[in-house]
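Deliverable D4.2, example record:
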Amino acid sequence: MRETTMLPNESKIIDSILSTVIAAGYCCSVVEGDYLEINRSTDIAAIKEAINGEGETYLRVLKQDDPFHLGTVVLIFNNGNEGIDIIADTASCDHAALDALLLPVYQLVDSLDSTE
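Output generated by the structure prediction step:
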């Protein structure tokens, strides 16, 4: 198992992203730099293992049988505010759909206290 420097709030937010996305019928790919760590997975433990917890990670959200992805969530670790600011950006051809999918995640982020 890979050792990470992930902050507790970062881990909570990633857990929320993954459970929300997978429950909605999507899968995830993890891109670290130029390297595809895991492709089109619904295994939350395997996806979390693929995320190194340092620097910048791209989490692509896809339908299992669709060649195009719904969007990308850009994660930057240790980005400040005790890990609450881990979601640095999102990119999508359909921002409304991606934002609607991630609404529970945004609600969690709003509820987190940066002093945790």
